[in-house]
Structures are given as structure tokens and as C-alpha cells.
Amino acid sequence: MTPDSHRADLGKDPARVSGMFDEVAPAYDRTNTVLSLGNDRLWRVATTRAVAPRAGQRILDLAAGTGASSVALARSGAEIVAADFSPGMIAEGERRYGSGAVGGGIPNLRFVEANATDLPFEDDEFDTVTMSFGLRNVDEPKKALRELLRVTKPGGRIVVCEFSHPPSKAFAGLYRFYNGRILPAVAKAVSSNAEAYEYLNESINDWPDQRTLSGWMREAGWTRVAHRDLSFGIVALHRAVKPA
């Protein structure tokens, strides 16, 4: 790793994590597709269906990265705010989909730099909030869940798509083998910063299981908390509602 590069660790210092994502932004989506064996697209479809965006709604897509998930939501006609704490990711999203993009970009999609634990939005501002593969990168995830509750309208919903723990011991063993042996070699071949993807394994292994995250959501004040596994539990899709 070069002296100027960022390699996040489980301390999840916001500046280091943000800097790491700045470095990988240009090739981020392509690398994710390769490392997930194409499953990232299936997870995005499942998340979009769970959010069920509609024209007239205002939706926050937090940890939006370069905006791939936000674009899928924006196709509904809903007003989408794509927020991320990485300036590099926001810049890449603006380049691809913003007003300066080829064709004028997507008019109902706006990019905002934002920290999940101190969101720059008013109370009760969004009909739905969603976060894909970003909550585990936050240094205070419970605080982030409370912030997401604050900016959601009463009766509004949250959808969190995040890596989790396969319930099958046999499959979990195969998954650990892939993450420990195969993924680092592939990341070295396709990523602009392979060392950054070492953090991916660490953060996934350290992240709690489905039941624990559901408990955190209830503690934050969300109700009707539920989840379903995707890809045998590699990923879990969590859903809940803000009390009316």
C-alpha cells in the first residue's frame, strides 16, 4: 500500500473509510460485480423491490456510492437523494448521472455528501430511507439507525441490505473459504486498491448476524422489523417501519 493510500480497519475512522472509498470509486461497481460473481445486481433488484419506490415519494439512498442503487430507484419517478460520505464516490456519481452527464443526467436524482451519524436533513423528510452495504462501515451504526429514523416520516419505511452470516454451517464454511482465499486474489487482479478489499473481509466477519441487527433496529425505535436472507444468507434484507 502506498504512503498516500487509505486502508480502513475495524476502528472505522470516518476519514480513513471515506478516503479508502475515494480511491476505489472509478472501478468500484465493476469490482463489486466481479467479486460477488454477479450477485450484486440481484441484491440491487431485491432491494429496489423492497423499497417499492413510487412517483411522488421522496427517498433517501444512504451510502449510495456512485449511484447505481439510486438510479434503479429513480426509474420509478420518485425523487431520490443519493447520499454518501465519500467525496470521490459522489463525484463519480455526478459524472455518470448528474446534470453534467451525457444526456443531462437524471433530473429526479440528486447527490449529497453526508455522514450517516449526522445527516444534513430535516426531521420527517423522507417517505423511505434505504442503505445498501454501508451500515457496517459506519463507526456508530446504532446512531446511524436513529438518524435514519429521525429523517423518516411517521409511517415511513427503512430497507437495509447488508452482508450477514449464512445460517448453514456447510455453506458458511465455503463462504469463508471464498472470502479468505479466492476473493483477495481476484481483488488484486481487478481492483485499483486491492488492500482496501482486505477490509471487506474483516468488516463482514466482524459484523453481527441477522437477529442482532434486527435487535439494533428495534432499539433505535423502528417497528415491524423483519428480514429475509438473500444468496443463502450471504446478504440479508432488513425492513422496518417508523411508528405513526
Describe what you observe in this structure.
By secondary structure, this protein is α/β, with parallel strands linked by helices. The protein has a single domain (14-241), classed as Rossmann fold (3-Layer(aba) Sandwich). The protein is built from nine helices and seven strands; from the N terminus they run αααβαβαββαβαααββ. Strands 3-2-1-4-5-7-6 form a seven-stranded mixed sheet, with helices on both faces. Helix 2 runs antiparallel to helix 7 (169-190) and helix 6 (141-151) crosses helix 9. The longest helix has 22 residues, at 169-190. The radius of gyration is 17 Å and the shape is globular. The N and C termini lie far apart (49 Å). Mean pLDDT is 89; it is low at 1-5. Methyltransferase required for the conversion of demethylmenaquinol (DMKH2) to menaquinol (MKH2). It holds the Pfam family Ubie_methyltran. It is an enzyme of class 2 (transferase). Its EC number is 2.1.1.163. Keywords: Menaquinone biosynthesis, Methyltransferase, S-adenosyl-L-methionine, Transferase.
